[in-house]
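Illustration 12: Ketoreductase domain-containing protein.
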Amino acid sequence: MSPSDRAAQISSHLNWPTGLLAGQLAIITGSGQGIGAECARLFANEGAKVVVCDVDSKRSDAVADEINKQLGDKRAISVPGDVTDKSYFDVLVKKAAEFGNGKIHIIVNNAGYTWDGVIHKMSDKQWETMLNVHGTAPFRLVRTAAPYFRVKDGEPRCIVNISSTSGTHGNAGQANYSMGKAGVVGLTKTIAKEWGPQFGVRVNTVAFGHINTRLTAAKEEGAFITTASGERIALGIPGKQLSSRKGDESKPSYPDIALGRPGTATEAAKSILAVCSPLFSYVTGQTLEVTGGRGM
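Figure caption equivalent — predicted structure in C-alpha cell form:
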C-alpha cells in the first residue's frame, strides 16, 4: 500500500476528511476577542461552522467576517448578545440550529470577566454578577440547547465549560469569580452523568492558569467591559501586584510556572480544540488544568 493510500485509509477510518471538527456546528460564547476568538478561528480551520457571540457586536461581527473572508465560504455567523439576558439564549440557539441545518454539536461556554474585590468589601452586585455570568449563563445555554444534544443520531456532541485555577484552587480578591468557576466543575460533571449514558454527550471543564489576555494584563492599561446596565468595569491586575510577581520588569520571571512563562490565547484555544476533537472521544466529566505547570 502506498503512503497516499495509507493516509486516505487512516483519514477515512478516523472520519476526519477535512479537519478534526468537519461537519460540526459550534457555539462559542465570548468569542469576539481573546481565547474565544482564537477558538472560533481554530474550529473553523478544522472544518466546523462557528457561531461567534459576544456582548460587543462590533467585535463579534469582525471575527465572523474574518473567518468567512479567510476560508472563502460561509463558515461563521455572528450572533451578538448579553449572556446575562436570559432571553438571549432562545435567539442564539435558534440561529445556531438554522446555520447548522438543524443540528448543534459543540458548545464552548467561554464568556466571562472578573470583578475583583476582597471579601469584606465586596458588594452583592459584584457577587451576583459573577455567579450569573460564570454559572447561570452556561446553565441556561445548555438547557436551551438540550433538544439538540439529547439526540441519538450517531454524531458527536461535546460541551466545554471554561473555568480557572481561581475556581479549582481559590484566589485572593476573587471570591465571586472563584465561586462561579468552581460551580462550573460541578455543572460539568452533572451534565456528563445525565447526558452521557443515553446520548453519548461528552462534557468537560478546561481550567486556565496565567494566560495572556486582558484579564491578566496590567489594570493600568485601561481594559474594561461595559455591562448591559451600562456599568464600566475595569479589567486586569494592578501593576504593583504584577511587578511583585515578576521581579525585574526588564526580565520578567514566573517562578511558579514550570514552563517559565504565561500561555498565549492561541495555546489556550488549542487545548479547547483538543478536548472537543475525536482525540478526546473517551474523556468526559474531567477538569483539564492548562497552566504551564503552575501550582504543581
